[in-house]
Design brief:
six-stranded parallel sheet, binds adenosine-5'-triphosphate, alpha/beta, 434 residues
């Protein structure tokens, strides 16, 4: 049998050049915030650095990811770099799938899975280090984990280290939240990404993305294309139209092409197709939602097309309902999207909006989920997690809701539990946003 090919040599990434500084900060502090540009090596290298420097002797390292596909793909990459089988020293745990073993000392998991683990083991004693990666996404789960970490570092005084990492998080705010913990800024990316802007917002971003994709295919050298769409419907439309237009190109005028969708409701075995080797002389078009926005490295992606929109769940206080709306992305999201190119070679990002829109209309960062949710919903969610010894009124949020309203919500929820018919008598502000 042929012997397996040796694992690729780990790349020297900006973060690796700061190894001593990172380890010194972690040695000396219970919490450290690491801000590093996209592609600098936060997701794949921090866990390996701390493993190398002895932090897994007393427990495992947990690294949270906001999305399942990222937990799977990053753990696979780290296992490959360390030359170990996935599920052994390096593994992952996502909803419905646990690929870890007794030997696992670096575990990638979604923030939801870590929260569930904290129900059965409130002190999370199995971990010596917890890394909350991509914290800038500010999902409700991340915000709850930040509060839990604050409590844990007091309870587990000297035997737990927490790292909070992000490409763009407001480091000072998080540092203040954690009593002035150090913030390490790691400059540098591996490869440059050239950005191109449209002169105006397209009236139809699907059509505009299609034209850009075909243009790249016809004129640019080999390299895969990652196209950001807002949701499954857009993706399905885009995939079929793109396949049709590629077929209509003059035979022999372009290399072969393969179009692949990537979104959260795709079964895991179809999601991971984007990481499989491509057929030779073939350009792949990966049409994705924001699941491809953070932590993901798809080897050979050289071109990114960013429509500038995202589908976001938000609460509407006047109707008392949640809706999934297509909204403008934030600058942080735009930079994360551009950062998917230029990871393994120089890249290009086509932004289907003018630079002035990026600079003046996009929000700096995505509005935290807690501020897009109904306060009653968030309180109920926190209650439903059934976290031991949690007093919701005292729960430490990075952006805490008002104590007065939280108290009213709790009172109302207790009343509703006993008299559900009284809901129509309640003032609507109780169900408004945090
Ligand atoms: N699956 C992979 N195949 C090839 N190279 C990879 C892979 N995963 C990571 N890399 C290399 O490691 C680099 C760092 O990746 P990593 O995910 O650790 O960065 P990051 O700082 O967490 O980025 P981001 O904030 O954008 O997620 C990539 O830019 C790329 O060069």
């Amino acid at each position: 049998m042929p012997s397996p090919s040796p694992p690729p040599a780990p790349p020297v990434l900006p973060i690796s050049e700061h190894e001593d500084e990172i380890v010194a900060a972690v040695d000396a502090n219970p919490v450290v915030v690491v801000i590093g540009e996209t592609g600098s090596g936060k997701s794949t290298q921090l866990s390996q650095i701390l493993h190398r420097r002895g932090y897994t002797r007393r427990g495992a390292i947990a690294v949270t990811q906001p999305r399942r596909v990222a937990a799977v793909s990053v753990s696979r990459r780290v296992a490959q770099e360390l030359g170990v089988p996935l599920g052994d020293e390096v593994g992952y745990a996502i909803r419905f799938e646990d690929r870890t073993s007794e030997r696992t000392c670096i575990k990638y998991l979604t923030d939801g899975v870590l929260l569930r683990e904290s129900l059965s083991n409130p002190e999370l004693k199995q971990y010596s280090v917890i890394i909350l990666d991509e914290a800038h996404e500010r999902s409700l789960n991340t915000d709850i984990l930040l509060g839990l970490m604050k409590r844990l570092i007091t309870e587990r005084a000297s035997d737990l280290k927490v790292l909070i990492t992000s490409a763009t998080l407001d480091g000072l705010k998080v540092s203040k939240f954690f009593s002035g913990c150090p913030v390490l800024n790691i400059p540098g990316t591996l490869f440059p990404v050239e950005k191109f802007y449209s002169t105006e917002r397209p009236t139809n971003y699907i059509e505009s993305s299609l034209r850009t994709a075909i243009d790249i295919h016809a004129k640019e050298p080999p390299g895969d294309v990652l196209i950001f769409m807002t949701g499954k419907d857009d993706i399905d439309k885009m995939v079929s139209k793109l396949e049709e237009r590629i077929q209509n190109l003059e035979e022999g005028s372009c290399m072969d092409a393969l179009v692949l969708p990537l979104h959260g409701s795709l079964p895991p075995e179809l999601q991971v197709r984007v990481f499989a080797p491509a057929p030779p002389n073939c350009r792949r078009f990966i049409v994705a939602t924001n699941v491809a926005e953070t932590s993901l490295t798809v080897d050979r992606v050289v071109f990114v097309i960013d429509c500038g929109y995202v589908k976001q769940r938000q609460y509407n206080p006047s109707s008392g309902m949640y809706s999934l709306d297509v909204v403008q992305i934030s600058r942080v999201q735009a930079d994360q999207r551009a950062g998917r190119a230029g990871r393994t070679r120089p890249g290009k990002c086509y932004r289907l909006y003018p630079m002035s829109v990026y600079e003046k209309e996009f929000l700096e960062a995505t509005v935290p989920e807690i501020q897009r949710s109904s306060l009653a919903g968030s309180v109920l969610y926190l209650k439903s997690l059934n976290l031991p010894d949690i007093n919701i009124l005292k729960f430490d949020f990075l952006d805490p809701p008002s104590r007065k309203i939280t108290l009213q919500i709790l009172t109302v929820l207790i009343i509703l539990l006993n008299q559900p018919e009284s809901i129509s008598l309640l003032p609507s502000y109780l169900f408004s946003r945090v």
